[in-house]
Structure formats: C-alpha cells, structure tokens
Design a protein that fits this description.
globular, mainly alpha, 524 residues, 19 helices
C-alpha cells in the first residue's frame, strides 16, 4: 500500500517532503541537536530515494504526469477550460529525471558533509530549514510543467540561497555577497515574470505544453524569449551575467556553495527546457543556437582567464565553474543550431547535446567535490588564501586524493568523468566548427595548468610549522566527498552506460517536442 502510494505520488513527494521537512525542522531542533541531525538527514535520504525511484519509472515506462486535483485519465478537461489552464501539472520526462537524480546525489553528499563541517555554528535549525527549502525549490524547478510555478520555485531558490550565503557572517562580506546575489536574482526574476506576462497575455495559457502548441513566434514572442534567456543565463552564472558568482561562491560555507552549483544547473536546465520544448516548433534555430554558443565561448574563456590569477581557493573554483558552464552552453547551442537540419542533427547535433547534458551531470559532481575539499581545508586551517597554504598533503591525504580526482575531472583528463563528456563535445563541435572545438580544448589545458599551481600551493612542499598539528577532515566530511569521488570514477570508467541509460534519453526528450506535447495534450 505504501509502495503504491509512493509510486503514484512520486513527482509531488520529491518536492513536498523537503518542504514539509523544512517547516518542521525548527520544531524538531527543540528536542535536541541529535534529533535535528537525524531529521534533516532522514528527509534528504527519503527525498533522494524517491527521486531515484521516479527516475527509474520514467526511464522504463516513459514520461510521468502528475495532475493536482485530477487524474491523468481526465487530463483533457482540467488542463484547458475555455482556453484557460486551471490545473497545476508536474511533468517528469527523461531530462527532468536525470536532473532530479543528480540533485539527489549532490544533496545527500552535501548534507552528510555538513553534519560535521557546520556542527559548531549557531542557529543551525534556520540553516537546515533554508537548506531543505533549497532542495525543495530545485526539485520543483525541474519537475513543474507550468511557467508561473517555475517562477515560484525560482524565487524560493533565490531567497533560500541568499539566506545561506549570508549565514557565515565574515566582517560583513558574506552579507554583501548575499545582498548582491539577491538583487541580481530579483532582477532576473523580474525579467522572467515579464516574459510570463507577455506569453499569458498573448496565448491565455501558462502550461508549457499548451504554450508550445500555440506559439507563433511573433515579435512579442521573441521579446519574451530574450527575457527568458537573459534571466536564466544570469541565474546560471554565464558570462556576461556572472558577476554575482565569485562573491557568493567564495563567501558561502562550502556545503552551501556545492548546492549553489545545483541551483545554477537547475536554471540551465530550465533554459534548455524552454528553448527546446516550449519554443522548439517555431524557433529560429540557427540564431538562438549561436546566441548560446557565443555565451558558452565567452564563459569558457573569461572564466578560465579570471581563475588563473586568483589567490582565494574558493573564488578560483568559482571562476572555473563559470568556465565549465560554457561547455554546456556550447554543446546545447550546437545541437540547437543544427536542429532544423535532420542530417546534421543525426550526425553530430545529438552528440553535442548529449555531451552538454552529460557535462551538466559531471559538473555538478566534480565542482561539488572541489568545493567540499576546499571547505575541508578551510575547516582545518582557517584560511582560503593559497599563499598561506602548503604541505597539507602530509596530514590531509584523503582530502588531497579527493581534490586531485576533482581537478583531473574538471580538466577533462582521462579516465575521469569530465573527459567523457568533454570528448563528446570536442568531437561534435569540431564537425560543426573546428575553431570552437580548438577554443574548448585550449580552455581545458589552461584549466589543468591553473589547478596544477593550486594543487602544489596547497598540498606539496614541506609541512609548514603553523600547520604541524593539522589533522584530516572528520569522517562524515570524508564520506560526503568520497561519494562524489566514487561517482566521478564510475562515470569516467563506464561513460557509455551513463550515456545510454540517462543522457541519450534526456537529449531525445528535449529534441522530441512532439512527444512531450502529445503526452500532455493528447491529440489536440
């Protein structure tokens, strides 16, 4: 009975469980700190298991639809009444399922890590309340099939993220970073809300599938698309809308920063969802494809260039993260640019999209690992300044190994997962435009070079006298990092399994707009 209930209601449970858990967290925390830890870890664990269950259902049985207040068998009535959609619908296809699984994995690893990393801080009940709200929001962003509901989840993620960035008050700088993040997120949300108003005023609908069916790509529709691209590019930290990223990523606790990466990737997912699924039938493929390609190239080049001179280890990783966003935009942009050409789409366009989606998954894992390892170092020695580090490899061997795995993955060195996704991007982009592939390859080389310097500064050389008593990170932190490190190695050694099982269905779900519409709208 319970199993049937969970299977039937899985799309809403992955959102409702962390939401309910967040509101009950302050009450549970009044019992004891141990109850609070158990509650938060239990909520995240159950959410993760349901996300994995939901993904397995989608990958074996097809797209899952959850209609609030009605059954899917009666879908044609509630979705449209006189042209006005009156039901909230959650739609989970292969792309949504892939995002949910990776978010669940990162969320579980990070919360386990946080149990030790943040245990000595005050007001942890508020901290974990915001943390669970953040998980709820990203799950909702990749699940909802409605524009306005996406906006609501986007705003929840912005408020929760800003609160978490400001949590570690450090001479006012963390609060400054949080205010900057919140202001930029609010501006992006306003752009997105304007786009919603434009589309609703034109087509009297908010459901993504219904809008996709009705869109005519008029001038006003193009304006709405520009607003959507601007808003979501800002939220995912793509150049030139990246200026909030270094401050927020470097001043937030490392466990929070790892989740901010997930929030950025949820926004990137939404960008691809709206461009491919909502605008796909009427889109000017080449133009919008090249917009994404341009944003991708700028993000790659500027991100890695700004990372090289950094002395703050978290700020350096943040700029490298901006650079990696560029690979995803490049792969998806190439796929979009050739979407109208069936021959090119089948020969290398789909491969470019698979590379971009695979890199989203890989980036969440290795970027999260890098931030967690940086957090472990800061936890033990109390500084983020690379010039004040050295010789930590003598006392933090496991952290050093995990950091090395993350570095090799982000630089695209075989046999780690970053190489597998970048190789798909290199090969497909080269067939589209060799210059773009060369730029991407050079950026990877610069990424490796910058991290070699970082690795040497942190771990190599003689043990510094002031760090003679430094010990390895606590066990829960090591387990959290270890989970991500294992995923990097497994995805790197068995990339074809990941591509065939998760990535390829996700790419097809984006390309097959007609399939998405038919599942929701039926024959209309």
């Amino acid at each position: 009975m319970i199993t049937d209930f969970v299977i039937k209601n899985a799309p809403i449970l992955v959102v409702a469980i962390p939401l309910i858990g967040a509101f009950l967290c302050p009450l549970v925390a009044r019992i004891s700190p141990m109850w609070r830890k158990t509650w938060v870890l239990g909520v995240v664990t159950v959410t993760s298991l349901i996300a994995i269950l939901l993904a397995s259902i989608v990958l074996t049985q097809g797209t899952v639809i959850y209609v609030f207040g009605a059954s899917t068998s009666n879908l044609t009535v509630p979705i449209d009444s006189g042209g006005i959609p009156i039901r909230i619908i959650f739609t989970v296809d292969a792309m949504s399922a892939a995002m949910e699984v990776i978010m669940a994995m990162i969320g579980f690893s990070v919360i386990l890590y946080s149990m030790s990393a943040d245990q000595e801080r005050s007001s942890l009940e508020q901290y974990y309340t915001l943390f669970l709200l953040l998980i709820c929001s990203v799950m909702g962003m990749v699940t909802t099939g409605d524009l306005f509901n996406f906006f609501v989840f986007l705003e929840i993620s912005s408020m929760a993220s800003a609160g978490l960035v400001a949590y570690r008050v450090e001479k006012g700088r963390a609060i400054e970073a949080a205010i900057k993040y919140f202001i930029v997120s609010t501006i992006a949300a306003i752009f997105f809300l304007f786009a919603i108003a434009i589309l609703y005023g034109q087509y009297n609908a908010l459901n993504i599938a219904m809008l996709a069916q009705r869109l005519q790509f008029t001038l006003i529709d193009k304006i709405a698309l520009i607003l959507i691209v601007m808003a979501l590019s800002t939220k995912c930290g793509a150049v030139p809308m990246h200026f909030w990223t270094p401050d927020a990523y470097s001043l937030a606790p490392s466990s929070v920063t790892a989740m901010l990466v997930v929030v950025s990737l949820a926004s990137l997912y939404a960008l691809f969802r709206f461009v491919f699924t909502m605008y796909g039938l009427t889109l000017s493929y080449v133009t919008i494809g090249w917009v994404l390609i341009t944003l991708g190239v700028l993000s790659m080049v500027i991100g890695v260039t700004m990372a090289i001179p950094q002395k703050d280890v978290q700020r350096l990783i943040a700029y490298q993260g901006i650079s990696q966003i560029g690979y995803m935009l490049l792969g998806m942009g190439v796929g979009l640019a050739v979407l109208g050409n069936p021959a090119q789409l089948s020969s290398f366009g789909i491969i470019a999209m698979e590379g971009g989606i695979f890199h989203i998954i890989n980036h969440a894992i290795y970027e999260g690992l890098l931030f967690l390892t940086a957090g472990s170092i800061i936890y033990r020695i109390g500084t983020r300044d690379l010039d004040k580090m050295g010789g930590l490899g003598h006392s933090m061997k496991y952290t050093m190994i995990f950091f090395m795995i993350g570095v090799l993955a982000i630089a695209g060195v075989p046999p780690f997962n970053g190489f597998a996704s970048k190789l798909l991007i290199y090969e497909s982009v080269y067939l589209f435009n060799p210059v773009l592939a060369i730029i991407a390859l050079v950026v990877s080389i610069l990424t490796l070079a910058s991290f070699v310097k970082v690795f040497h500064s942190i771990f190599m050389g003689p043990r510094l006298l002031e760090y003679a008593g430094v010990r390895e990170a606590p066990l829960p932190m090591l387990i959290g990092m270890g989970i991500l490190a294992v995923l990097i190695v497994v995805f790197g050694f068995f990339p074809q399994v990941v591509v065939n099982t998760i990535v390829a269905p996700a790419a097809q779900a984006l390309v097959n707009q007609g399939g998405y519409l038919s599942v929701i709208l039926g024959g209309r």
